[in-house]
Design goal:
2 copies of one chain form a homodimer. In chain A, 54% of the residues lie in helices and 12% in strands. By secondary structure, chain A is α+β, with helices and mostly antiparallel strands. In chain A, helix 14 runs antiparallel to helix 15. Chain A is globular, with a radius of gyration of 24 Å. The interface between A and B is large, with 94 and 93 residues. Chains A, B: GO terms for molecular function: flavin adenine dinucleotide binding; oxidoreductase activity, acting on the CH-CH group of donors. Chains A, B: Its EC number is 1.3.99.41.
C-alpha cells in the first residue's frame, strides 16, 4: 500500500497530548487555530501521498549526479519541488511580514514530518531554505532581506548552509574559510566546504549559500567567525540575475543513503559575499537557527520511523509464512512479529509526541517570552533530536527484519528508510553531541527545568493512579529514578558527565515516552488501541531506563580508565 | 591501518576462557594440539591480512554481475579464491578420510571468523562448500562422495545450498520444487529457488547445487522433502565434465550489502539430480548441517564486529576534533567516543568467546558422545547465532557513528561492515526464529541444560567473589535472575513464550558475556586491560539483562492483545 500521511495521529497528539490549544491561544499564533491547522495538515497530507511519496524511490535508485559542474536531480524531483513552491510551503514558518505563513513551529513540525516521510531526500532542500529564511529574518540587513526573502519564500531561489570543512565538523570553530573585505563593502570569500546539502540543483533560478568564514581580524575559534550570503548568481539592482559568482561544486559524495539529495563539496575562490549580522557574530546567527534545525532533524527520524512502520505492517498483512492461529492468517499473527511491529509503532508515537511537545514549548517560549517555556524547549531539543533520529534508524532496521530476506533486497524499499535515516543521527550535531549538550548546557540551571518537567509528569501520573494503576505506577517510579539521577548528575563536574551523557538522554526520552503514552491512554478513556499500545510501551520499552540510569550513576571512571591498548583486542 | 587478524585474542580465549585443551585431549582431535592450532591461526591471519582484506572494498564497489547467464565476480576475487584453495582451506573441517584437515569446529570457527573479517562476501563461497561437504559426508552414497568430495575439498568445484523459494523461507516445508524419478535412478528436478548464495561464479570448474525438492509421493510439509545433488555440468564416468545441466541463473539480487557475493534466482527445468540420503529425508540432512551453519553465521557477525572495531579505533586515533585533555590529542580522548569504542570491543569479545565456547561444546559432543556437551552445544547455537549477528550489526553501526559524517560516505568503508552484517541477522533462520528455537526446542528438557550452564557460571563467580567482588557479584546476581526467569518460562506453554523469546535470548547472551569477561579478568590475574574491559562490560552492558528479563516475565498477553488497527497509528 502507498504511504498514508499520519494526519489522525498528529491531530490526536496536538489535541490531547501536547495541548496545542495553548499555542493558538497566544496573540502571536491566534491565526493558527484548530480549523486552520486541520486544513493545513490535510493539504500537506495530500501533497505527501500524491506528489512526494511517489518520487521517493527514484531518488534512491537514480541519485543526483554532477554533470559539467551542474547538479542533475532525480526524475520527478523538479516537478515535486514546483508543487511545493506553488503551495507556498517554503514560507511555512516564515513571518507574515516577509510573505510567509507565520505558522507556529509545532505546525511546521507536523507538516515537515509528513512530507519527509514522503521523500526525505527532496525535503532536505526546502528545509535548508527554511533555515536560511529564519537566519536572514533575524540577522540580515533590510537590503539583503528585500532581495532574498521574497525569492526564497516563493521557492524561486533555494538556500544552503555552509558550515563544515574537512577539519571542522563538530568543532566548527576550527574552520579555515577566509573573508577579505572589499572596497564596495562586500567580501571575497575563499575556502572549501564539505557535506553541503543541496549545494546545487537544476530547478531553482539561484542558489543562495550562507557561508561561515573568518575575517582577517577574526579571533581563533568560534568567536572569530562571521556569516556571509554568497549567491551562485549575483543579483543586480533591477532584480534580475547577473554574472555567476566564483564558486563551484567540486564533487558529490557517494553516501549510504539520501541518494536523491546532492551532498556537495563546494569551493569558493574569492567569491563575492555579503555580511549577514555582526562581524564575528556568525556563531550567534547559527545558534538562532540551531534549535529549530535540531528539532527539524529529530522530526526526520520520526518521518522515517512512520514510513518504515507502515511498510512493515503492510508486509506483515500480505505475507503468508508458517502456521498461524491468528485472525489474519499472515505473519502479523506471529507473536514475535507483532512484538516488532508494536515496538515500531509505540516508539514512533513516542518520538512524534516528543517532537510536537518540543514545538509547543518553542512556540510558547517565543509567543509569551516566558522563561520557563524557553527553558523547557531548550531542554527538550537535544532529546527530540537524538531520540527522534535513533528511533528513526532503529525502527527502520526492525522494519527490515520484519521483511525477512526481502528486507535485504533493495527493490523492496525497506532498507532505504534505514539508510536514509542513518545520517540524521550524525548531522546537525551528532547524537553524542546532543547528549553532551543535555548534560552540560541544558542542566547548567542545576537541573531546574528538568525538575519542573518531572514534577509535571509525576503529578499527572499521581492524578490518574487510581484509574490507570498499571501504567501510572511504573511511570511515576521511572520519573522519580530519573529525578534522583539528575540530582546526582548535576553535582558532578561537567567533564565527569561524559560517559553518562548518551544513556541519560535516552533514559529521559524513555520517561517522556511513557508520559505521552499515558496521556494518550487517559485521553482515550476506556481501553482502546491507545491504551493497549501504552501498556506495551510501559511494560516492555520503558524498563530500559533502569539500566541506562544505572550506567549514568556509575560515573565516568571506568570509561576514562580505558587505554588505547585495551580496545585493540 | 589495514586489518590485522585478531590472533592474540582468539588464542587467549582458546587458552584461558573456553578451555580448548579439552578438545585436543580427545582422541578424535588429538592432532589439533596447541602448536598446530597456533600455526593454523597464524597462516589464516596471513591470508586474511594479505589476500582477503585487500579485495573487500572491490566486492562492494564492483558487485558481482550476470553477463550472458554467467556470474562475473569482482576484481581480485578469483585470485583470492585460488589462494584459499591452494592453502587447502576448503577442507578445513572435512574429515581426513575424505582428504580434509579434520579440524575441530572450534578451530574452523576461529579461522572462519578471521577470514570473514577480511572479506565476508567472498568467504561465503567456501562456507557454502564446507556446508555441502559436511552434508555429503553424512548423507551421500559412496559413489557420490567419490565424485564430489575430492573436487569440493580441493576447491576445483564449489557447492551451494538451495532451500528458499518465493513462498518458502522460514517455512521450508512450503516448498514447491519437484523431483521426478527417471529410469536410470536419477531424478528430474524442476522449480525456482531464490536467495541462492554464490549460485554461480567464473572461477570454479563446476558448481554443485544441493537442492531441496519434493518427490511425487512426498507428503506435504517438511516430512515430504528430499535432498538432491544437481551439478551445473554433469560429471562423466571418466571424471571429466560433460554436458551442461538444465539449470540457470535467472537474475541476481540487488542487495543492501555483501555486493561481492552473487545472490541468485535459480531455475531448474527437469535438471538431472542424484538423491542424497533417504527419500523424504531431506530435512534430516539439512538439520545435520544446520547447527554448524548457524554457528558459522554467528561468527560472521563477530567478524564484522572485529573489522568495524579496528576501523573505528584507527579513525579515533587519527582524527582531531575539539579540545581534548587526553593522552592522544585525538577524538579517542573524548569520553563519549571511548564509551562507543569500549562497547564495540567489549561486545566483540563477548560474541567471539560465545562462538568459541559453542565450538568447544560441539566438538566435545561429537568427540565424546557426551549428551551433556551435545545439549550444551544445542543450547548455545541459537544464542551464538543471534547475539553474534546482532553484535555484528550494532557494533558496525556504532563504528559509523564514531566516524561522524565520514561514516556516511561510502568510500570510508565503515558503512559497508554494517550493510554486510545486516543479512546475517536474517539468513540461516532469522534471529527471531533463533529465539523461538531457544525458548521452544532448546528448553524442551525443562531447562536442564540451561540450569547446568548457570550452575557453572554461578560456581565460577562464587569461587572468585573474594578477589573480584565488583565483577563476580553482579554476574552471580544476573545468572540467578536468568535462572528464575528460565524456571518460570518452562512452566508456560510454548505458544505463550513467543513475546519473551527475543529478550530472553539476548539476556542469556548478556549473562554469558559477563561470564567470559570475568574469566578473562581472572585469567589475567592483576588489573590489566582485560580486567578494565570486564569492568566496563559488567558495569554498563550486563545491566541490560534486567529490563529484558522483566519483559520475558511479563508474558505474551500484552502483545497478543494488539490488533491490526492498534499498529496503524
Amino acid at each position: 500500500m502507498p504511504f498514508r500521511a499520519p494526519v489522525a495521529d498528529c491531530q490526536f497528539i496536538l489535541d490531547h497530548v501536547v495541548d496545542y490549544a495553548q499555542v493558538s491561544a497566544t496573540e502571536r499564533f491566534a491565526q493558527a487555530g484548530a480549523d486552520t491547522v486541520a486544513a493545513i495538515l490535510d493539504e500537506a497530507a495530500k501533497l505527501t501521498d500524491n506528489v512526494l511519496a511517489p518520487v521517493n524511490r527514484n531518488g534512491d535508485t537514480d541519485p543526483a549526479r554532477l554533470e559539467n559542474g551542474v547538479v542533475v536531480t532525480p526524475k520527478g524531483f523538479a516537478q515535486a519541488y514546483a508543487q511545493l513552491a506553488e503551495g507556498g510551503w517554503m514560507g511555512l514558518s516564515a513571518s507574515e511580514e516577509a510573505g510567509g505563513m507565520g505558522l507556529p513551529a509545532t505546525v511546521a513540525t507536523a507538516v515537515n514530518e509528513m512530507m519527509q516521510s514522503g521523500c526525505l531526500a527532496l525535503m532536505l532542500n526546502p528545509l535548508m531554505t527554511q533555515g536560511q529564511i529564519e537566519a536572514l529574518e533575524h540577522h540580515a540587513s533590510d537590503d539583503l532581506k528585500a532581495i532574498y526573502l521574497p525569492k526564497l519564500i516563493s521557492g524561486a531561489w533555494c538556500g544552503t548552509m555552509n558550515l563544515t570543512e574537512p577539519g571542522a565538523g563538530s568543532d566548527v570553530g576550527a574552520l579555515r574559510a577566509k573573508a577579505e573585505p572589499l572596497d564596495d563593502g562586500t567580501y571575497a570569500i575563499s575556502g572549501q566546504k564539505i557535506f553541503i546539502t543541496w549545494g546545487d540543483n537544476d530547478f531553482a533560478e539561484n542558489i543562495c549559500h550562507l557561508v561561515l568564514a573568518r575575517l582577517p581580524d577574526g579571533a581563533a575559534g568560534t568567536k572569530g567567525i562571521s556569516l556571509f550570503m554568497v549567491p551562485k548568481y549575483l543579483p543586480q539592482a533591477d532584480g534580475t540575475l547577473g554574472a555567476q559568482n566564483d564558486l563551484k561544486v567540486v564533487s558529490l559524495e557517494h553516501k549510504l543513503g539520501i541518494h536523491g539529495s546532492p551532498t556537495c563539496v563546494m569551493e569558493y575562490n574569492a567569491a563575492k559575499g555579503w555580511l549577514v549580522g555582526e562581524k564575528h557574530g556568525g556563531m550567534a546567527a547559527m545558534f538562532t537557527m540551531m534549535n529549530n534545525a535540531r528539532l527539524g532533524v529529530g522530526v526526520q527520524g520520526v518521518a522515517m520511523a512512520e514510513a518504515a512502520t507502515q511498510k512493515a505492517l503492510d508486509y506483515s498483512l500480505e505475507r503468508t509464512q508458517g502456521r498461524t492461529s491468528g485472525p489474519t492468517g499472515k505473519i502479523f499473527d506471529h507473536t514475535d512479529v507483532r512484538r516488532m511491529l508494536a515496538t515500531m509503532r509505540a516508539d514512533t508515537y513516542a518520538a512524534r509526541a516528543l517532537a510536537l511537545a518540543c514545538g509547543v514549548a518553542l512556540d510558547l517560549g517565543r509567543a509569551t517570552g516566558d522563561a520557563d517555556w524557553q527553558a523547557r524547549a531548550a531542554l527538550l531539543i537535544p532529546i527530540a533530536k537524538a531520540f527522534g533520529t535513533d528511533t528513526g534508524h532503529d525502527v527502520a532496521q526492525i522494519g527490515v527484519q520484519v521483511h525477512g530476506g526481502m528486507g535485504y533486497i533493495e527493490e523492496t524499499g525497506a532498507a532505504q528508510f534505514a539508510r536514509d535515516a542513518r545520517i540524521t543521527q550524525i548531522y546537525e550535531g551528532t547524537n553524542g553531541i546532543q547528549a553532551l549538550d543535555l548534560v552540560g548546557r541544558k542542566l547548567a540551571d542545576g537541573g531546574e527545568a528538568a525538575a519542573r518537567l518531572l514534577d509535571e509528569i509525576e503529578a499527572f501520573a499521581e492524578s490518574v493512579r487510581a484509574s490507570h494503576t498499571a501504567l501510572a505506577g511504573p511511570l511515576w517510579d521511572a520519573a522519580e529514578t530519573l529525578r534522583e539521577t539528575t540530582e546526582h548528575l548535576v553535582t558532578l563536574p561537567v567533564g565527569a558527565r561524559g560517559a553518562g551523557a548518551v544513556p541519560y538522554l535516552r533514559a529521559f526520552a524513555r520517561v517522556l515516552g511513557g508520559y505521552f503514552h499515558l496521556k494518550a491512554a487517559v485521553a482515550e478513556g476506556g481501553s482502546g488501541k491507545r491504551s493497549r499500545l501504552a501498556c506495551f510501551y510501559i511494560e516492555r520499552l520503558l524498563p530500559e531506563h533502569r539500566a541506562l540510569l544505572a550506567a549514568v550513576s556509575a560515573g565516568s571512571a571506568t570509561v576514562e580508565a580505558l587505554e588505547v591498548g585495551d580496545l585493540e583486542g
